[in-house]
Design brief:
alpha/beta, Rossmann fold, 7-stranded parallel beta sheet, 6-stranded parallel beta sheet, 20 helices, 13 strands, globular
């Protein structure tokens, strides 16, 4: 356990979250900011998370934001993905040792996939080998709803102990991974406490969840039952988009509409308090358009790079001033080949993963920002990229490569968006040309909607969550 017990005058809420600092990523920040600011609303968070996660993103700068008086309990688990990688590496070495026999692809490619989902089961099997077949069966039949279910039995026992030791009066759970919902269901059933479930993403209707239901109706029924129980037993449910809220209400017509609250992700102004004036990472006097986060998992970036090539080929002034910075994005070989073949290395630059505090500095030093989204209707309508809200806080032009949906509506209402489909070469080229023209003429003009942007402040969102917890306790007592 880290942290000192404090906030004696506050009510205590048990926060269940598998993704918590020093893990990094957008979902981590949502829960962290609630923990940070709930204390101002009369609530003292008590966090229960995993002690040994298998997760590629590590950010000590986020860990430093955990208030000193917040108790953080960390319970160990057996991460199947880590075990899978170790076994795969061992098999790979063994096979490579045999003359003329290369390592199996399944063994070389084993890697954590995160909350967003896993590669298609068919792709896993296509890698070949007995180990790949075993992996597929384990993923499909045992790790339901996700590999983090292994944590739940031990976490349930520890959560019961924590709840009694700390005297908690309510439960807050954040998913994905969806195993957190399974844990919260079991805990609420045993303790009878008010429960607020934060569903950051859809569950059984999620794009990548559907792959596991093909030829596996038992798994689908099991996960659908868990999802239904959330809407029956939780006192309140948070969702991140209107479309997700509407889908859930249509799916569960017996659930009162007032039981669901839309609460998007947001921004914390204090994240920018450390930002230094002047340039630490980026050259001054240039037009920097910066994306932080992952792009290669979203869509094919080659059409965008083609738009860049056409613009700088036709306009020498654009080549002289335009710099595209991809921060935290892993380079792909095909992108390297395209950049080299078209002499774009001075315009398109890749930076490795950096702590969140540094990524914010990159954004602050840029004149325009960029985000991307999976170009599918279901994704654009029900999901919001977390980085967008940091972009809103900075009040800078946002080049959004996506299709019409909730992301585009927010950016347009905030009056900061420049929208193009990620395969629209002409549209992306036109937006970049407009940014170059504005920069060259003395500055890019922008008239953001300040009052609308202010609604995404994390402190304001924590105030709303505090009210929801109070109402959940009152309603729970009335029902009892």
């Amino acid at each position: 356990m880290s942290g000192l017990r404090g906030g004696a005058g506050n009510r205590r809420v048990l926060v269940l979250s598998y993704r918590f600092p020093p893990q990094g990523g957008g979902g981590v920040q949502r829960t962290l900011k609630f923990v940070k600011y709930l204390r101002r609303q009369g609530w003292q968070p008590v966090v229960h998370t995993v002690s040994n996660p298998y997760w590629p993103l590590h950010d000590e700068s986020l860990a430093r934001e955990i208030p000193d008086d917040v108790a953080v309990y960390r319970t160990p688990t057996l991460e199947f993905e880590r075990l899978e990688t170790v076994i795969g590496s061992w098999l790979s070495r063994g096979r490579s040792a045999k003359p003329g026999r290369p390592a199996a692809r399944a063994d070389r490619d084993a890697a954590p996939q995160g909350d967003a989902g896993l590669p298609e089961g068919e792709a896993r099997l296509a890698r070949g080998g007995r180990f790949a077949q075993v992996q597929d069966k384990v993923w499909r039949r045992l790790l339901v709803p996700d590999p983090q279910i292994v944590w739940c039995p031990g976490a349930l026992v520890r959560s019961l102990w924590i709840a009694r030791r700390e005297g908690v009066e309510a439960i807050y759970s954040s998913s994905p991974p969806n195993s957190i919902n399974v844990l919260a269901l079991a805990l609420q059933r045993r303790l009878g406490l008010p429960w607020v479930a934060d569903l950051r993403d859809p569950w059984t209707d999620g794009l990548r969840r559907q792959q596991w239901y093909k030829g596996n109706p038992a798994r689908q029924r099991r996960e659908e039952r868990w999802e239904r129980l959330i809407f029956e037993r939780a006192d309140h449910i948070l969702v991140t988009t209107d479309a997700c809220r509407d889908t859930f209400l249509e799916k569960y017509p017996d659930c009162p509409a007032e039981k669901l609250t839309l609460m998007t992700n947001g921004f914390d102004p204090e994240d920018f308090a450390h930002v230094q004036t002047g340039n630490r990472f980026l050259e001054p006097g240039l037009l920097h358009v910066t994306l932080t986060g992952n792009v290669e998992t979203m869509f094919d970036a080659l059409p965008f790079f083609t738009a860049v090539r056409e613009l700088v080929t036709e306009n020498p002034a654009a080549r002289a001033c335009l710099r595209l910075n991809f921060v935290g994005t892993k380079r792909q070989a095909r992108y390297d080949e395209f950049i080299a073949a078209n002499d774009l290395s001075d315009v398109i630059r890749f930076h490795g993963y950096v702590p969140h505090s540094d990524s914010v500095q990159y954004l602050a030093e840029s004149q325009a920002l960029m985000l991307c989204q999976i170009p599918r209707y279901e994704s654009a309508v029900v999901k919001l990229p977390g980085k967008m809200f940091e972009y809103l806080c900075l009040r800078k032009p946002v080049l959004a490569l996506t299709i019409p949906g909730v992301t585009t509506r927010i950016l347009e209402r905030a009056r900061v968006g420049r929208i193009a489909a990620p395969d629209d070469v002409a549209g992306m080229k036109a937006i970049l040309a407009d940014l170059v023209a504005g920069f060259s003429s003395g500055g890019i003009r922008l008239d953001p909607d300040e009052s609308y942007i202010a609604t995404f402040d994390r402190c304001e969102q924590a105030r709303n969550l505090g009210g929801i917890l109070e109402a959940a306790i009152a309603g729970h007592r009335t029902a009892a």
